[in-house]
Fold:
Amino acid sequence: MNWTQLLSTKRFGMEDYHENRADDRSEFQRDYDRLIFSAPFRRLQNKTQVFPLPGSVFVHNRLTHSLEVACVGRSLGINVAHRLQSKGVESPFLDEIGSIVSAACLAHDMGNPPFGHSGEKAIATFFSEGNGQKLEQEMTETEWKDITCFEGNANAFRLLTHQFTGRRKGGFALTYSTLASVIKYPYSSVFSDIKKQKFGFFESEKADFVTIASDLGIPKSPDNPNRYSRYPLVFLVEAADDICYQIMDIEDAHKLRILSTETVKELFLNFFEESRKLRIEETLKIVTDKNEQIAYLRSSVIGQLIDLCSAVFAEHETEILNGTFNSTLIKQLPVKQLNAYQLCSKTAVEKIYCSPEVLDVELAGYKIILTLLDNFVNAVMKPEKAYSKQLLLRIPEQYETSASTSYGKILSVLDYISGMTDVYALDLYRKITGMNVPSL
Structure:
Protein backbone atom coordinates (compact mmCIF):
# COMPACT_ATOMS: atom_id res chain seq x y z
CA MET A 1 0.00 0.00 0.00
CA ASN A 2 1.14 3.56 -0.63
CA TRP A 3 -0.04 6.83 0.94
CA THR A 4 -0.80 8.57 -2.35
CA GLN A 5 -3.38 5.96 -3.30
CA LEU A 6 -4.62 5.39 0.26
CA LEU A 7 -5.59 9.02 0.85
CA SER A 8 -8.43 9.66 -1.57
CA THR A 9 -11.11 12.36 -1.72
CA LYS A 10 -13.39 10.23 -3.91
CA ARG A 11 -16.87 9.99 -2.38
CA PHE A 12 -18.81 6.73 -2.19
CA GLY A 13 -21.91 6.90 -4.36
CA MET A 14 -20.78 10.14 -6.00
CA GLU A 15 -17.90 8.82 -8.08
CA ASP A 16 -19.35 10.35 -11.27
CA TYR A 17 -19.13 13.79 -9.67
CA HIS A 18 -15.61 13.40 -8.30
CA GLU A 19 -13.63 16.60 -8.60
CA ASN A 20 -10.82 18.41 -6.82
CA ARG A 21 -12.31 21.41 -5.08
CA ALA A 22 -10.26 24.42 -4.12
CA ASP A 23 -11.57 25.93 -0.89
CA ASP A 24 -10.58 26.24 2.74
CA ARG A 25 -12.51 23.20 3.96
CA SER A 26 -11.10 19.85 2.85
CA GLU A 27 -13.21 16.90 1.75
CA PHE A 28 -12.25 15.05 4.93
CA GLN A 29 -13.38 17.96 7.08
CA ARG A 30 -16.66 17.84 5.15
CA ASP A 31 -16.97 14.19 6.23
CA TYR A 32 -16.61 15.24 9.86
CA ASP A 33 -19.20 18.00 9.52
CA ARG A 34 -21.62 15.74 7.67
CA LEU A 35 -21.48 13.19 10.48
CA ILE A 36 -21.81 15.76 13.28
CA PHE A 37 -25.03 17.18 11.79
CA SER A 38 -26.62 13.79 11.05
CA ALA A 39 -29.61 12.35 12.92
CA PRO A 40 -27.95 8.96 13.62
CA PHE A 41 -25.04 10.75 15.28
CA ARG A 42 -27.34 12.91 17.42
CA ARG A 43 -29.16 9.78 18.59
CA LEU A 44 -25.93 8.54 20.18
CA GLN A 45 -26.59 10.98 23.03
CA ASN A 46 -29.31 8.61 24.22
CA LYS A 47 -27.44 5.33 23.83
CA THR A 48 -25.66 3.65 26.72
CA GLN A 49 -21.86 3.57 26.70
CA VAL A 50 -21.29 1.50 29.87
CA PHE A 51 -23.18 3.01 32.78
CA PRO A 52 -26.92 3.84 32.90
CA LEU A 53 -27.80 7.15 31.29
CA PRO A 54 -27.29 10.00 33.78
CA GLY A 55 -29.37 10.87 36.76
CA SER A 56 -27.71 13.26 39.19
CA VAL A 57 -24.19 12.32 38.05
CA PHE A 58 -23.31 12.73 34.38
CA VAL A 59 -21.42 9.82 32.82
CA HIS A 60 -20.50 9.04 29.24
CA ASN A 61 -23.01 8.09 26.61
CA ARG A 62 -22.18 6.99 23.06
CA LEU A 63 -22.16 10.57 21.80
CA THR A 64 -19.76 12.03 24.37
CA HIS A 65 -17.56 8.94 23.97
CA SER A 66 -17.48 9.36 20.18
CA LEU A 67 -16.61 13.06 20.44
CA GLU A 68 -13.74 12.30 22.80
CA VAL A 69 -12.48 9.46 20.60
CA ALA A 70 -12.57 11.90 17.65
CA CYS A 71 -10.43 14.39 19.62
CA VAL A 72 -7.86 11.73 20.51
CA GLY A 73 -7.97 10.37 16.96
CA ARG A 74 -7.29 13.80 15.50
CA SER A 75 -4.24 14.20 17.77
CA LEU A 76 -2.98 10.75 16.82
CA GLY A 77 -3.42 11.55 13.13
CA ILE A 78 -1.63 14.89 13.37
CA ASN A 79 1.24 13.32 15.30
CA VAL A 80 1.58 10.48 12.80
CA ALA A 81 1.49 12.86 9.83
CA HIS A 82 4.34 14.91 11.34
CA ARG A 83 6.36 11.78 12.04
CA LEU A 84 5.85 10.46 8.51
CA GLN A 85 6.82 13.81 7.00
CA SER A 86 9.97 13.87 9.12
CA LYS A 87 10.82 10.43 7.65
CA GLY A 88 10.55 11.89 4.15
CA VAL A 89 7.13 10.44 3.24
CA GLU A 90 5.36 12.54 0.60
CA SER A 91 1.66 12.51 -0.31
CA PRO A 92 -0.81 15.24 -1.34
CA PHE A 93 -3.11 14.63 1.64
CA LEU A 94 -0.67 13.51 4.31
CA ASP A 95 -1.46 16.51 6.51
CA GLU A 96 -5.15 15.53 6.40
CA ILE A 97 -4.66 12.25 8.30
CA GLY A 98 -5.90 13.92 11.49
CA SER A 99 -9.13 14.97 9.77
CA ILE A 100 -9.72 11.50 8.29
CA VAL A 101 -9.13 9.72 11.59
CA SER A 102 -11.32 12.12 13.58
CA ALA A 103 -14.21 11.69 11.12
CA ALA A 104 -13.91 7.89 11.26
CA CYS A 105 -13.84 8.07 15.07
CA LEU A 106 -17.13 9.98 15.04
CA ALA A 107 -18.69 7.19 12.98
CA HIS A 108 -17.16 4.15 14.67
CA ASP A 109 -20.08 3.50 17.06
CA MET A 110 -22.98 4.68 14.90
CA GLY A 111 -24.02 1.11 14.08
CA ASN A 112 -24.32 0.04 17.70
CA PRO A 113 -27.83 -0.84 18.90
CA PRO A 114 -29.38 0.43 22.16
CA PHE A 115 -28.07 -0.72 25.57
CA GLY A 116 -24.41 -1.06 24.74
CA HIS A 117 -22.83 -4.40 23.94
CA SER A 118 -25.76 -6.24 25.51
CA GLY A 119 -27.86 -5.00 22.58
CA GLU A 120 -25.48 -6.69 20.14
CA LYS A 121 -25.60 -9.90 22.16
CA ALA A 122 -29.39 -9.82 22.34
CA ILE A 123 -29.72 -9.51 18.55
CA ALA A 124 -27.24 -12.33 17.94
CA THR A 125 -28.77 -14.71 20.48
CA PHE A 126 -32.33 -14.09 19.27
CA PHE A 127 -31.32 -15.87 16.06
CA SER A 128 -28.80 -18.36 17.45
CA GLU A 129 -30.74 -19.40 20.58
CA GLY A 130 -34.18 -17.78 20.51
CA ASN A 131 -37.30 -17.65 18.35
CA GLY A 132 -35.28 -16.58 15.32
CA GLN A 133 -33.62 -20.00 14.98
CA LYS A 134 -36.42 -21.20 12.69
CA LEU A 135 -35.26 -18.80 9.96
CA GLU A 136 -31.89 -20.49 9.38
CA GLN A 137 -33.11 -22.55 6.42
CA GLU A 138 -34.19 -19.40 4.57
CA MET A 139 -30.68 -17.92 4.34
CA THR A 140 -27.24 -18.73 3.01
CA GLU A 141 -24.45 -19.67 5.38
CA THR A 142 -22.95 -16.17 5.23
CA GLU A 143 -26.29 -14.40 5.68
CA TRP A 144 -27.07 -16.54 8.71
CA LYS A 145 -23.62 -15.89 10.21
CA ASP A 146 -24.18 -12.13 9.71
CA ILE A 147 -27.18 -12.08 12.01
CA THR A 148 -26.21 -14.79 14.52
CA CYS A 149 -22.96 -12.87 15.12
CA PHE A 150 -24.48 -9.39 14.73
CA GLU A 151 -21.67 -6.86 14.84
CA GLY A 152 -21.94 -3.11 15.44
CA ASN A 153 -18.85 -2.43 13.32
CA ALA A 154 -20.39 -4.09 10.26
CA ASN A 155 -23.67 -2.31 10.95
CA ALA A 156 -21.87 1.05 11.03
CA PHE A 157 -20.49 0.42 7.53
CA ARG A 158 -24.02 -0.48 6.36
CA LEU A 159 -25.52 2.65 7.92
CA LEU A 160 -22.89 4.83 6.28
CA THR A 161 -23.09 3.31 2.78
CA HIS A 162 -26.53 1.74 2.25
CA GLN A 163 -29.09 3.53 0.09
CA PHE A 164 -32.21 3.36 2.24
CA THR A 165 -35.58 3.89 0.54
CA GLY A 166 -36.01 7.52 -0.47
CA ARG A 167 -32.41 8.37 0.32
CA ARG A 168 -29.55 9.22 -2.00
CA LYS A 169 -27.09 6.74 -3.45
CA GLY A 170 -24.04 6.08 -1.31
CA GLY A 171 -25.66 6.64 2.06
CA PHE A 172 -23.66 9.40 3.76
CA ALA A 173 -21.51 9.72 0.62
CA LEU A 174 -18.32 9.86 2.68
CA THR A 175 -14.84 9.72 1.18
CA TYR A 176 -13.36 6.32 0.50
CA SER A 177 -10.57 7.02 3.01
CA THR A 178 -12.95 7.82 5.87
CA LEU A 179 -15.08 4.73 5.17
CA ALA A 180 -12.02 2.46 5.02
CA SER A 181 -10.86 3.85 8.37
CA VAL A 182 -14.07 2.62 10.04
CA ILE A 183 -13.61 -1.06 9.11
CA LYS A 184 -11.61 -2.65 11.93
CA TYR A 185 -12.15 -6.19 10.65
CA PRO A 186 -11.75 -6.25 6.83
CA TYR A 187 -13.47 -9.56 6.17
CA SER A 188 -16.95 -11.07 6.16
CA SER A 189 -18.61 -12.97 9.02
CA VAL A 190 -17.77 -16.46 7.72
CA PHE A 191 -14.06 -15.66 7.95
CA SER A 192 -14.15 -14.20 11.46
CA ASP A 193 -12.27 -15.76 14.39
CA ILE A 194 -14.23 -18.51 16.14
CA LYS A 195 -13.80 -16.90 19.57
CA LYS A 196 -14.12 -13.20 18.75
CA GLN A 197 -16.77 -13.43 16.02
CA LYS A 198 -15.85 -9.91 14.83
CA PHE A 199 -16.20 -8.85 11.19
CA GLY A 200 -16.32 -5.67 9.14
CA PHE A 201 -19.24 -5.87 6.70
CA PHE A 202 -22.43 -7.80 6.06
CA GLU A 203 -22.90 -9.82 2.90
CA SER A 204 -25.20 -7.03 1.69
CA GLU A 205 -22.27 -4.56 1.68
CA LYS A 206 -19.47 -6.89 0.59
CA ALA A 207 -19.34 -5.54 -2.97
CA ASP A 208 -19.19 -1.98 -1.62
CA PHE A 209 -16.22 -2.82 0.57
CA VAL A 210 -14.42 -4.53 -2.32
CA THR A 211 -14.94 -1.43 -4.48
CA ILE A 212 -13.40 0.81 -1.83
CA ALA A 213 -10.53 -1.58 -1.10
CA SER A 214 -9.67 -1.94 -4.79
CA ASP A 215 -9.66 1.80 -5.38
CA LEU A 216 -7.45 2.52 -2.36
CA GLY A 217 -5.06 -0.31 -3.18
CA ILE A 218 -5.82 -2.38 -0.08
CA PRO A 219 -4.57 -5.92 -0.85
CA LYS A 220 -5.64 -9.30 0.45
CA SER A 221 -3.98 -10.28 3.72
CA PRO A 222 -0.64 -12.05 3.15
CA ASP A 223 -1.60 -14.43 5.99
CA ASN A 224 -5.17 -15.23 4.90
CA PRO A 225 -6.47 -14.92 1.31
CA ASN A 226 -10.05 -14.74 2.62
CA ARG A 227 -9.32 -11.47 4.39
CA TYR A 228 -8.06 -8.05 3.35
CA SER A 229 -5.19 -6.21 4.99
CA ARG A 230 -6.22 -3.49 7.38
CA TYR A 231 -6.40 0.06 6.05
CA PRO A 232 -3.51 1.79 7.88
CA LEU A 233 -5.56 4.51 9.58
CA VAL A 234 -7.78 1.87 11.21
CA PHE A 235 -4.95 1.33 13.70
CA LEU A 236 -5.26 4.97 14.79
CA VAL A 237 -9.07 4.84 15.09
CA GLU A 238 -8.76 1.65 17.13
CA ALA A 239 -6.09 3.17 19.39
CA ALA A 240 -8.21 6.29 20.00
CA ASP A 241 -11.15 4.10 21.00
CA ASP A 242 -8.98 1.87 23.21
CA ILE A 243 -7.48 4.88 24.98
CA CYS A 244 -10.77 6.63 25.61
CA TYR A 245 -13.05 3.83 26.71
CA GLN A 246 -10.48 2.34 29.08
CA ILE A 247 -9.44 5.57 30.76
CA MET A 248 -12.83 7.31 30.71
CA ASP A 249 -14.69 4.28 32.11
CA ILE A 250 -12.41 4.43 35.13
CA GLU A 251 -13.05 8.15 35.58
CA ASP A 252 -16.81 7.54 35.33
CA ALA A 253 -16.52 4.74 37.91
CA HIS A 254 -14.81 7.21 40.23
CA LYS A 255 -17.62 9.74 39.80
CA LEU A 256 -20.15 7.02 40.64
CA ARG A 257 -18.04 5.96 43.66
CA ILE A 258 -17.52 2.47 42.32
CA LEU A 259 -13.76 3.07 42.52
CA SER A 260 -12.10 5.13 45.26
CA THR A 261 -9.97 8.20 44.60
CA GLU A 262 -6.85 6.45 45.87
CA THR A 263 -7.46 3.41 43.66
CA VAL A 264 -7.85 5.55 40.53
CA LYS A 265 -4.83 7.70 41.42
CA GLU A 266 -2.72 4.58 41.73
CA LEU A 267 -4.01 3.15 38.44
CA PHE A 268 -3.21 6.35 36.56
CA LEU A 269 0.14 7.09 38.21
CA ASN A 270 1.35 3.63 37.15
CA PHE A 271 1.68 4.98 33.59
CA PHE A 272 4.53 7.36 34.48
CA GLU A 273 8.23 7.08 35.16
CA GLU A 274 9.37 8.21 38.60
CA SER A 275 10.52 11.71 37.60
CA ARG A 276 7.22 12.52 35.83
CA LYS A 277 5.26 10.95 38.67
CA LEU A 278 6.92 13.27 41.20
CA ARG A 279 5.99 16.35 39.11
CA ILE A 280 2.40 15.17 38.83
CA GLU A 281 2.17 14.53 42.57
CA GLU A 282 3.37 18.10 43.22
CA THR A 283 0.51 19.40 41.07
CA LEU A 284 -1.96 17.19 42.94
CA LYS A 285 -0.95 18.91 46.17
CA ILE A 286 -2.12 22.21 44.71
CA VAL A 287 -5.36 20.83 43.21
CA THR A 288 -7.41 19.65 46.18
CA ASP A 289 -10.73 18.85 44.48
CA LYS A 290 -10.78 15.06 44.08
CA ASN A 291 -12.67 15.04 40.76
CA GLU A 292 -10.29 17.66 39.39
CA GLN A 293 -7.31 15.59 40.52
CA ILE A 294 -8.62 12.58 38.62
CA ALA A 295 -9.39 14.73 35.57
CA TYR A 296 -5.80 16.04 35.58
CA LEU A 297 -4.39 12.54 35.88
CA ARG A 298 -6.70 11.27 33.12
CA SER A 299 -5.60 14.02 30.73
CA SER A 300 -1.95 13.28 31.50
CA VAL A 301 -2.41 9.58 30.81
CA ILE A 302 -4.26 10.20 27.55
CA GLY A 303 -1.59 12.66 26.40
CA GLN A 304 1.15 10.14 27.07
CA LEU A 305 -0.70 7.33 25.31
CA ILE A 306 -1.26 9.53 22.24
CA ASP A 307 2.48 10.20 21.96
CA LEU A 308 3.44 6.57 22.51
CA CYS A 309 0.89 5.13 20.05
CA SER A 310 1.96 7.67 17.42
CA ALA A 311 5.55 6.53 17.85
CA VAL A 312 4.53 2.86 17.54
CA PHE A 313 2.69 3.59 14.28
CA ALA A 314 5.65 5.46 12.77
CA GLU A 315 8.06 2.74 13.88
CA HIS A 316 5.99 -0.02 12.27
CA GLU A 317 4.87 1.96 9.19
CA THR A 318 6.50 -0.44 6.73
CA GLU A 319 4.80 -3.49 8.28
CA ILE A 320 1.48 -1.65 8.39
CA LEU A 321 1.71 -0.76 4.70
CA ASN A 322 2.74 -4.33 3.84
CA GLY A 323 -0.23 -5.75 5.76
CA THR A 324 2.05 -7.75 8.07
CA PHE A 325 1.48 -5.79 11.30
CA ASN A 326 -0.81 -8.12 13.28
CA SER A 327 -1.23 -6.24 16.52
CA THR A 328 -2.94 -3.22 18.01
CA LEU A 329 -0.85 -0.13 18.74
CA ILE A 330 -1.72 -0.45 22.44
CA LYS A 331 -0.17 -3.93 22.64
CA GLN A 332 3.14 -2.50 21.39
CA LEU A 333 3.46 0.09 24.17
CA PRO A 334 6.59 0.11 26.33
CA VAL A 335 6.40 -2.45 29.15
CA LYS A 336 5.59 0.02 31.95
CA GLN A 337 2.70 1.65 30.11
CA LEU A 338 1.41 -1.66 28.77
CA ASN A 339 1.33 -3.14 32.27
CA ALA A 340 -0.47 -0.05 33.56
CA TYR A 341 -3.04 -0.26 30.75
CA GLN A 342 -3.61 -3.98 31.36
CA LEU A 343 -4.12 -3.34 35.08
CA CYS A 344 -6.77 -0.74 34.17
CA SER A 345 -8.45 -3.34 31.93
CA LYS A 346 -8.36 -5.97 34.68
CA THR A 347 -9.84 -3.53 37.19
CA ALA A 348 -12.59 -2.51 34.76
CA VAL A 349 -13.61 -6.11 34.15
CA GLU A 350 -13.62 -7.01 37.84
CA LYS A 351 -15.04 -3.84 39.37
CA ILE A 352 -16.90 -1.90 36.65
CA TYR A 353 -18.40 -4.12 33.96
CA CYS A 354 -19.76 -6.55 36.56
CA SER A 355 -21.18 -3.85 38.83
CA PRO A 356 -24.94 -4.02 39.58
CA GLU A 357 -25.52 -0.69 37.80
CA VAL A 358 -24.09 -2.05 34.55
CA LEU A 359 -25.63 -5.50 34.81
CA ASP A 360 -29.11 -4.08 35.45
CA VAL A 361 -28.97 -2.10 32.20
CA GLU A 362 -27.73 -5.13 30.28
CA LEU A 363 -30.45 -7.39 31.68
CA ALA A 364 -33.20 -4.88 30.91
CA GLY A 365 -31.74 -4.20 27.47
CA TYR A 366 -31.70 -7.91 26.66
CA LYS A 367 -35.38 -8.27 27.47
CA ILE A 368 -36.40 -5.17 25.53
CA ILE A 369 -34.41 -6.04 22.39
CA LEU A 370 -35.59 -9.67 22.36
CA THR A 371 -39.22 -8.59 22.66
CA LEU A 372 -38.94 -6.03 19.88
CA LEU A 373 -37.22 -8.56 17.60
CA ASP A 374 -39.81 -11.22 18.32
CA ASN A 375 -42.64 -8.91 17.29
CA PHE A 376 -41.11 -7.15 14.31
CA VAL A 377 -39.35 -10.17 12.78
CA ASN A 378 -42.64 -12.07 12.92
CA ALA A 379 -44.37 -9.08 11.31
CA VAL A 380 -42.01 -8.82 8.31
CA MET A 381 -42.05 -12.57 7.78
CA LYS A 382 -45.86 -12.80 8.01
CA PRO A 383 -47.04 -9.40 6.73
CA GLU A 384 -50.50 -10.73 5.85
CA LYS A 385 -51.46 -11.17 9.53
CA ALA A 386 -53.70 -8.47 11.02
CA TYR A 387 -51.35 -7.64 13.90
CA SER A 388 -48.37 -7.66 11.55
CA LYS A 389 -50.01 -4.98 9.42
CA GLN A 390 -50.38 -2.75 12.46
CA LEU A 391 -46.80 -3.30 13.58
CA LEU A 392 -45.39 -2.64 10.11
CA LEU A 393 -47.05 0.77 10.12
CA ARG A 394 -44.73 1.57 13.03
CA ILE A 395 -41.61 1.08 10.88
CA PRO A 396 -40.55 4.15 8.85
CA GLU A 397 -40.74 3.78 5.05
CA GLN A 398 -36.97 4.09 4.62
CA TYR A 399 -36.57 0.53 5.94
CA GLU A 400 -37.18 -2.12 3.27
CA THR A 401 -39.60 -4.43 5.10
CA SER A 402 -40.94 -5.78 1.81
CA ALA A 403 -37.51 -6.86 0.52
CA SER A 404 -37.50 -9.83 -1.85
CA THR A 405 -35.45 -12.10 0.44
CA SER A 406 -35.77 -13.20 4.07
CA TYR A 407 -32.27 -11.82 4.68
CA GLY A 408 -33.30 -8.41 3.35
CA LYS A 409 -36.44 -8.38 5.50
CA ILE A 410 -34.47 -9.27 8.63
CA LEU A 411 -31.90 -6.56 7.89
CA SER A 412 -34.72 -4.01 7.62
CA VAL A 413 -35.80 -4.88 11.17
CA LEU A 414 -32.21 -4.74 12.42
CA ASP A 415 -31.75 -1.36 10.71
CA TYR A 416 -34.83 -0.07 12.54
CA ILE A 417 -34.04 -1.49 15.98
CA SER A 418 -30.31 -0.77 15.95
CA GLY A 419 -31.04 2.86 15.12
CA MET A 420 -33.22 3.32 18.20
CA THR A 421 -32.11 5.16 21.32
CA ASP A 422 -32.41 3.42 24.68
CA VAL A 423 -35.39 5.58 25.64
CA TYR A 424 -37.20 5.03 22.33
CA ALA A 425 -36.68 1.26 22.54
CA LEU A 426 -37.99 1.20 26.11
CA ASP A 427 -41.01 3.33 25.19
CA LEU A 428 -41.86 1.14 22.19
CA TYR A 429 -41.40 -2.00 24.29
CA ARG A 430 -43.91 -0.69 26.84
CA LYS A 431 -46.42 0.18 24.16
CA ILE A 432 -46.39 -3.08 22.22
CA THR A 433 -46.53 -5.13 25.44
CA GLY A 434 -49.46 -3.07 26.73
CA MET A 435 -47.54 -1.78 29.74
CA ASN A 436 -48.01 1.82 28.67
CA VAL A 437 -51.30 2.73 27.00
CA PRO A 438 -51.73 6.25 25.58
CA SER A 439 -54.30 8.36 27.41
CA LEU A 440 -57.73 8.34 25.82
Remarks:
- Residues 100 and 178 are 5 Å apart (CA to CA).
